[in-house]
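Q: My labmate handed me this sequence with no annotations at all. I'd like to see what the chain might look like in three dimensions before we decide whether it's worth expressing. Could you predict it?
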Amino acid sequence: MMQYEIGIVETRNVIKTLLDDYGYDFRDYALTSFKRRLEQIISNNGLKDADGLIGKLKGNPTFFDQFLNEVNIDTTEMFRDPSFWRTLRDDILPEIIRNSTTKPRIWIASFDSGEELYSLTIILKEMGALDKVQIYSNVFTNATIQKITSGQLDPKDIEINEANYVRLNGKSQYSSYYKVEGNKYFFDSTLVKDVNFIKQTPIIDKDPGAVKLVLFRNQALYYNQLLQERVLQKIAESLVAGGFLALGIKETLENTNANNKFTVFNETERIYKRKNV
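A: Here is what I predict for the chain of 277 residues:
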C-alpha cells in the first residue's frame, strides 16, 4: 500500500490549525522535511489524509501532545559524531568550568529526545564535573520530560550507542549506565535529576540567559532561513562573551547575520566562540 503524500496546500492547512488552535508556529520549518514528518504521522495513526489529521488535532490536546512528540526530530544516537564529544570533553568543558566563578550554564537548545542530554551528562560524570554545571534542555511537551527522566531510551540504538562510546574513548563501560528490564533499557536517571527543562514552542522564544555553552546540533537544517536567523540571534544573545556554540557538522554560521558575533573555534566540528563585542 502506497503511503499518502500530503500536498503543499494541505501542509499549510495543518500548520494553520496548529497555530490557530494551539499557538505553535511551524510556518518557518523547512517545508519538505516537515511534509515528510506529517506523512509519517498520518500513516502511524491510521489516518486517511491531512483532513483526518486536522480533525484529530482539533479539540484534542492529548493527541496534540502526541503529535508534538512524533513531529520532533529525534536525536537517534548517543555520542553522535564521537570526535565532537572528545573535543567537548578535552577542550571546552574544562575551560568553561575552570574560568567560571559560579556554575556555568549549558543549554541544549535543540529539541532533544534524551540522547544528547545523556551523552553530555555521562561525559560530565566521567570528568567528575556533573555537579559543577547547570544544564538546561529544550522540550516540546511534559511527555518528553517524563520519557527522559524515566531513563527509557530506544533499545534499537544500543549497539550503535556503544560503538560511539568506544570511539569516544569513554572512561567506563557503556553498559554500566543502563539496566535491562525485559525488552526495555533504562539509563541511570540520576544523571539528569538536576536538569532544568524548558518547554518551548517551535520558534524557541525562551532562553536561560548567561550561557557558557549551547548545543544546537542538527536542528537548524530543519528551519527555513528566516527561522534560522531568528533562532541563531536568540542563541547569540543568550551566550556570554567567550561562550561556545556547537552546531552540527552539516551546518554553519556562514551567510547568517549571527556570523559576525562569533569566531571559529573548531571548523571541523562546527564549534564557534562568542566574541567579546
